[in-house]
Amino acid sequence: MENNLPDFELCLAQCGSSISPQELSALHGLVCGLLCAKPDLELLQLVEILPKMGQGGVLETAIVDQLGEILQLSRLQMGDDDLGLEVWLPDDETSLAIRTASLAEWCSGVLAGLSEFAGESLAKIYAESSNKDSDNFDAAEALRDFTAISRIMDEPIEGTEGDEEDFAQISEYCRISLLLFQEMLRGPDELDSIH
């Protein structure tokens, strides 16, 4: 069975001007962050959470018809033994500036989702983050990085080959870090039982 998310550009086109690429990426980030902390998240719960998280406008767009599919496929990807998780971003034909802003919003969505169900755990991780011997040191560093990435939207981007390579590396780092957050919140034993 294919676990690929719906085509980003097609979803964006179906929504017309009612949603930006950044908002679509933020939605996926939010879903992923929520699933890290609450793997059994149901569609109805997601629909109730969206307005509270500043994503209520999504419910008034065509993407609402695919929300259940996005939730289920994201859940499957996050449980994939082959690390098949996608970061749902515009394709490579889109300007680097828009892709970077979309990645920033995806990271912001992940952080919002994590804080919804795992706020106390995140506070504990941050508190332990100065101790390099802590089990949560890498996760705390990744959380700080996600916060920094979520703030890069306004920085000028030239779109050089080096910028493209940097973007690809940062996107991959974000993808793997999300899986680290998931393991940190659920523990390795629970992840094994999901597979």
Structure description:
- It is a single chain.
- The chain has 195 residues and is mainly alpha-helical.
- It has one domain: YgfB uncharacterised protein family PF03695 (Four Helix Bundle (Hemerythrin (Met), subunit A), Up-down Bundle), CATH 1.20.120.
- It has helices at residues 8-15, 21-37, 43-52, 67-78, 96-128, 137-149, 161-186, 188-194.
- Helix 2 (21-37) packs across helix 4 (67-78) and helix 7 (161-186) packs across helix 8 (188-194).
- The longest helix is centred in the middle third of the chain and has 33 residues, at 96-128.
- The protein is globular.
- It starts with 7 loop residues before the first helix and ends with a helix.
Number of strand segments: 0
Order of helices and strands: HHHHHHHH
Beta-strand proportion = under 5%
Largest sheet: none
CATH class: Mainly Alpha
What is this entry, summarized?
The protein is an all-alpha fold.
Salient structural properties:
195 residues; mainly alpha; Four Helix Bundle (Hemerythrin (Met), subunit A); 65% helix; globular
What are the SSEs and their pairings?
Layout: H1 8-15, H2 21-37, H3 43-52, H4 67-78, H5 96-128, H6 137-149, H7 161-186, H8 188-194
Helix pairs in contact: 2-4, 2-5, 2-7, 5-6, 5-7, 6-7, 7-8
